């Protein structure tokens, strides 16, 4: 675990999300996926009890990566171009999942919803008391966000996994950005980037009525 943890630093996640928004306020897909990959690496350091979560995240990252490696890769450069391309070509199941079960729009929406949880969780960590419980911050923010989209069995499994989370200070130190205070400062730096990416995507999906894709 120590060796794996040493390869993770929250800094790489910060750098990735900071690189997401272009001058035209488009959300670049490659750094977005790089940010998630960094988060998944971190999650894997926390123990095998989280594997079912990281596996699902990896599956979704790979679906979008495959689009980025396909002949249509240019269409998937930004979330804006992906939405435009998939909608214009009838590649999104708008009513129910059928012909295009793994569209980029649908898959990205899953990560986008998880980003909302992440934003709230990191803010909870940043502003929490020294001795506060990561498991409580995690379950409260999960229940207020992602849980609304998950069936009972997933919510139950997630709740059990959260109990395995270390205390806030140990958690902050695992981020490999120095002391707990330094990690808190890094969170303060990272959050505005994550919030901006979330906000732009949310507006785009709302504008195209894509927020409920099943
Ligand atoms: C510095 C702090 C970093 C913390 C890192 C945490 C990384 C967490 C990665 C979570 C990625 C979750 C993606 C979930 C996508 C999703 O909602 N999938 C569901 C729906 O997909 P479908 O294709 O069926 O429509 C899917 O059913 C999910 C299955 C797996 C369980 C997801 C539980 C998510 C819990 C999120 C909290 C993670 C706790 C991490 C502890 C730090």
TrEMBL record:
GO cellular component: cytosol; endosome membrane; Golgi apparatus; nuclear outer membrane; plasma membrane
Keyword Membrane: yes
BP GO terms, sorted: negative regulation of autophagy; negative regulation of interleukin-1 beta production; negative regulation of NLRP3 inflammasome complex assembly
InterPro entries: GLTP_sf, Glycolipid_transfer_prot_dom
SUPFAM superfamilies xrefs: Glycolipid transfer protein, GLTP
Keyword check for Membrane: yes
Membrane topology value: Peripheral membrane protein
One GO molecular-function entry: ceramide 1-phosphate transfer activity
Catalytic reaction(s) noted: N-(hexadecanoyl)-sphing-4-enine-1-phosphate(in) = N-(hexadecanoyl)-sphing-4-enine-1-phosphate(out); N-(9Z-octadecenoyl)-sphing-4-enine-1-phosphate(in) = N-(9Z-octadecenoyl)-sphing-4-enine-1-phosphate(out)
Location, primary (coarse class): membrane
Keyword vocabulary terms for this entry: Cell membrane, Cytoplasm, Endosome, Golgi apparatus, Lipid transport, Lipid-binding, Membrane, Nucleus, Transport
Domain Glycolipid transfer protein, residue spans: 27-176
Superkingdom to which the source organism belongs: Eukaryota
Cell location: Cell membrane; Cytoplasm, Cytosol; Endosome membrane; Golgi apparatus, trans-Golgi network membrane
Family statement drawn from the similarity comment of this UniProt entry: Belongs to the GLTP family.
Name under which the protein is recorded: Ceramide-1-phosphate transfer protein
Gene it is expressed from: CPTP
